[in-house]
Description:
Blueprint: H1 3-16, H2 19-26, H3 30-44, E1 49-51, E2 56-58, H4 60-88, E3 92-98, H5 100-117, E4 121-127, E5 141-146, E6 154-161, E7 163-167, H6 169-175, E8 189-192, E9 199-204, E10 207-212, E11 218-219, H7 222-230, E12 235-239, H8 240-249, E13 253-254, E14 264-270, H9 278-291, H10 295-298
Parallel strand pairs: 3-4, 3-5, 8-11, 8-12
Antiparallel strand pairs: 1-2, 5-14, 6-14, 7-12, 7-13, 9-10
Helix pairs in contact: 1-2, 1-3, 1-4, 2-3
Amino acid sequence: MDRLKAAQVFVEVVERGSLTAAAERLDMSRAMVTRGLAAMERWAGARLLHRSTRRLGLTPAGEQTLARCRALLDAADGIEAERAAQDATPRGLLRLSCSSAFGYDLLAPAIAGFLARHPQMAIDVQIVNRIVNLIEERIDLALRITDAPDDALIARRLAPCRSVVCAAPAYLARHGLPRRAEDLVRHNCLTYSYFGKNLWRFERRGRAVEVPVAGNLSSNETAVLLEAALCGAGVVMQPSFAVAEHLRAGRLVALLPAEPPKPLHLYAVYATRRHMPAGLRALLDFLAERYADAPWDAALKPRTKKPA
């Protein structure tokens, strides 16, 4: 038994008046309390208690040792309280990963707000358009837009993330407007290399519809596909946050409003819940609060003109 625990046993025996009461208070067996008291007497090098059938009494050495043990336990409690307070304060460096499509316009302002709220934090944002290995690349938190987060990781759903199938007016003037999801097989579809390259998924009256698509341009960077679509190169499926302003400005036209793409979600994924730093917990809560209402989808709603 360590000395701190032995000191706790000694103090409890004195305050409770018996070994049995101390054992109940400490949730220990009476034999363990006896061993703890013996360890304390060996440490003090003196007999600490007078024992009789009716009561326990302190020896002179016991009175001196009791005061010192109480001071020792108070100091230990202070260290624990200080550590708990430090653990509860978000501090230190976190490495965060997300895609460029989400990072520039939506993550950067959120991180700025988080750092303003928690000035002892620092964030290293890694912009990568691929699935990163959190352990190998020392990433604390990754933001991923998916419908199937990795089962090997802890995933916290932050917000829905709708996709929009759209094309430029110039393209539609040349090739016509698709009326059903299946019509896309006759269109030049610009596809993302890492997700759904050959199969786009839609919902029709609660039923899933899968459409094989093809085109003459694919890329691992969604911004490339978006710019190509704006130039009239073909039909593109993009997250709502990437195309909202283009739709409102008329540079793109949303297609198939009655058959939306299968909805995805924004997830925050991390490796383990064990020993989670206060900073990571605070960032998760901050992002969940900021993105709860999917503000990027609200941007799709038409603007109302203010009365003159």
